[in-house]
Amino acid sequence: MNWLADILDGTNRAIAMVVRWLVLAMIVIQFAIVIGRYVFGVNSIAAQESVLYLHGAFFMLGAGYTLLVDKHVRVDIFYAKLSDAGRRRIDIFGHLFFLLPSMTALLYWSWPSVRNSWKILEGPISVGGIEAVFLLKSLIPAFCILVMLQSLAILIRLFSRRPTA
User: Fold this and answer.
1) How far apart are CA 70 and CA 9, in angstroms?
2) Would you list the domain boundaries of the chain?
3) Secondary structure letter of residue 70 according to DSSP
């Protein structure tokens, strides 16, 4: 089953390799917005919204990779002091009873809004903005699916590994 976990890891790695360039694009666009506004007196709502879209895409599509490389926020104060077997049990419990159910609930409850947004091809957030809010809302189910896939890969590895103590 580790081959399946490798495929799921590879999916999030590949997406992260693409998504990381969104940060550079976001910086360049924001710099252009500031120069345009304060040097040339030109303003663009669509350009400002594009920074919002890129920021959302970066964080939502990069969440699975963050879980893969174990750089997410841990709140458990006892985790670091536990044995490998104790950490394994907490990880399994957390994925099965917190992460997967919360992602499933978010996917379930957000889906009608995303579906309706696509049905009407929901327009811009602001007048003169990007006419693609439906794409922005699509990041929600993508986020849920990528995090769930990574959680599944982690669980496969946790269940295939033998506890040491």
Assistant:
1) 12
2) 2-160
3) T
